[in-house]
Structures are given as C-alpha cells and as structure tokens.
Design goal:
By secondary structure, the chain is of the alpha/beta class. It contains 15 helices and eleven strands. The chain has a five-stranded parallel beta sheet with strand order 2-5-8-1-9.
C-alpha cells in the first residue's frame, strides 16, 4: 500500500488517502458504533501530527476508541494509567546504574510507543502531567542531560474525567494548548445502545480486529496532508476567527499562534480525508470546535467553555 500511495500523482494520492481513511473509519466503526464524526476527528488529529484529548464521563468508550485506533493503524500501543502518586519517571523512564559497565543506562518508559494512551490524565498531579510536555511538543525527552527521540508516528490520546469528579486536577493552560483537539463521545442513542446490549462483547470484537493500514501508510498520509493547498481567502478566514477570539468581550484568553497553526493543520487533514483538492471553509468550520474550545478562557476563568461558544464564534465571523 505504501509504495503505490507515495508514488501516485497528486490527485490520485489524495483519492487513495481518502480511501485509506474511509477504510480506517469503517474498521474502527465496527467497534465504536455511531461515532463516525468523532472517529474522523481523531484520525484528522493524528494525521495533523497533533495529540488528542477526550473528555467525557467514564464508560462511554474512550479507552476502547484509543485501542481501536492503534489496531486499525497497526501502531505500537502503550497505556499509562495516571494516578495521584505517579512520578515523571513512571512516564518517561529512568537511568539505572550498571555495575558491570560502571555507567548509567536509560530504561525507556511507556511514553516510548507510537500511540500512547494517557488514561485519566487529570487524576495525576501537575508534576506528573508536565512530564508529557516535552514529548508532545518536541517528540523527544531529556533525561540526565541526554536526549532520546520518540517513535514516529507519535500520537498521544489523553482521556480525562469531568473536573467536578472527585480526585481530579485541572490541566494547566500550557498542557491544554499542546492538545490539537479535544472531543467528547457522549452517550449512544437508544437504538445503538440496544445493539451494544444484545451484541457481542466489544472486547472480544477488538481481539479480532485487523489493521486497515500500516504505520508507513500513516506517515505517507501525514506527508500528503501537509501538501493540501490553503488559499489566501482561507488564511484570511482563519485569521479573522483567531482575531475574534482575542478581541471579543467575554473571552479573556483567545487562540494562541499555536492554536491558529493547529487549526490550519487540522483543516488540511480534514480536507484531504474528505477528498478536497484544497481547504474549503466547511473544513475549517468542521474542525474549529475541537481545536478551539479547550484553549479559550472566558471572563469567569473557565477553560472548559460551553459547546455553544465555538458556534457563536463561527456565526459571528463571515465566511469569505
């Protein structure tokens, strides 16, 4: 699959990338029912070389989605269960002294995987949460003055419970800004929930799930998405959205330059998996809520803003 996709002409490459994305979404949809939009947003986040935050109540399939993505994309998968007593070394790894060689040797932690699930990340203390920062931003970690590269592709999916639940610590702004997207899964509708109740156990289905692509296809799709055209009009539209978040009364903290870049990257990837030759305004509007809402601070001090805020911004800024 990889060679033919990499050598195809631009239009054929785009069509093949869309076909591969459809295969991935379909494969994950065998496990996660009725959540095609969320699955496509998660895939968009990965192709944009970002990281994903899933916030929802326990039991709606956050971990199941992460495991399904890892299998469907044939990625090495590690799960880190965040707890209040976790230390940074539990995530990154530690240098251990080898008496025979009279030197320290680094033992990598679970962060050294292609897809890392940081489960219930907001149950750890800020010190442990911050251990993710360098890896998410730089795709490398530094231990005792030595730098170690993380695998490629490298994708962090963090789950968190609502902040009003017992034993949770709010993620700092610097951590939130490193997540390209935040999504929620929500409860299934009654028809799909009935199918879950009478159908086969999702865990058994997951054991039988086969990869839809391989990791080399993922990297090729990431590179293809980077080349999607963005017109001056789309850049004007994105800058208008960003400017609105920074200048509007009631929004204390608007989108950062990193947030604006993430919006462009996400729109390009969404355009590619939608089969568009270039980014359309609809591509920007589709990814905007997932890219923006966790970054915006209202005058009340809340970082977790209402879902209506993104819609308000989109309705207030005219499409070019």
């Amino acid at each position: 699959m990889t060679d033919s996709l990499a050598l195809a002409p631009e239009r054929d490459q785009r069509d093949q990338a869309r076909a591969l994305a459809d295969q991935v979404v379909g494969r994950i949809g065998e496990i996660i029912l009725g959540k095609d939009q969320q699955i496509r947003l998660a895939l968009t986040c990965l192709l944009a070389r970002g990281h994903l935050l899933i916030e929802d109540v326990p039991g709606v399939g956050k971990t199941l989605l992460a495991r399904s993505i890892a299998i469907a994309l044939d990625l090495d998968y590690r799960r880190i269960q965040f707890t209040s007593d976790m230390l940074p070394a539990d995530i990154i790894g530690v240098s251990v002294f080898n008496q025979q060689q009279s030197s320290f040797h680094f033992h990598p932690g679970p962060l050294f995987a292609e897809l890392v699930l940081a489960d219930e990340v907001n149950r750890a203390t800020p010190k442990a949460q911050s251990a993710l920062l360098e890896g998410m931003e730089e795709q490398q970690v530094t231990v005792d003055g030595s730098t170690y590269e993380l695998p490629k592709p490298f994708f962090v999916i963090a789950t968190q419970n609502p902040l009003n639940q017992i034993g949770t610590y709010p993620l700092p702004e610097s951590q939130l800004d490193r997540f390209l997207m935040r999504i929620g899964l929500g409860y299934p509708d009654e028809t799909l929930e009935r199918e879950l109740l009478v159908g086969e156990d999702r865990r058994i289905l997951l054991e039988r799930l086969k990869p839809a692509v391989d990791k080399n296809d993922v990297i090729t799709m990431q590179n293809a998405a980077h080349g999607v055209h963005v017109s001056s009009a789309i850049l004007d539209y994105v800058q208008a959205l960003v400017r609105f978040t920074r200048e509007t009364s009631g929004i204390e903290l608007g989108l950062s330059p990193r947030g604006a870049q993430d919006l462009i990257h996400a729109a390009k990837c969404w355009a590619m998996i939608s089969g568009h030759a270039g980014v359309h305004p609809e591509d920007v509007k589709t990814v905007f809520p997932a890219v923006s809402n966790h970054r915006l601070r209202t005058d009340s001090g809340a970082l977790d803003t209402t879902p209506d805020l993104a819609e308000f911004i989109l309705e207030s800024v005219p499409v070019p």
